[in-house]
Amino acid sequence: MIEAVGLTKRYGAKTAVDQLSFQVRPGHVTGFLGPNGSGKSTTMRMILGLDRPTAGHVTINGSPFRELPNAQRHVGALLDAKAVHGGRRARTHLLALAQLSGIPEKRVDEVLGVVGLQDVARMRTKAFSLGMGQRLGIAAALLGDPQVLLFDEPVNGLDPEGILWVRNLMRRLASEGRTVFVSSHLMSEMALTADHLIVIGRGRLLADMGVQEFIAHNSAGFARVRVADTDRHGAQALGETLVKAGGRVLKEPDGALRVTGLTLPQVSDLAHEAGVRLWELSPHRASLEEAYMRLTQSSVEYTSTDDPRAELFAPEPLTVPAWEDESAHAVSGPTAAAFYAPPPPGADRPFLMPSRPADLAGPANDSEDAR
Question: Which residues are registered as beta bridge partners of 81?
Answer without folding.
Answer: none
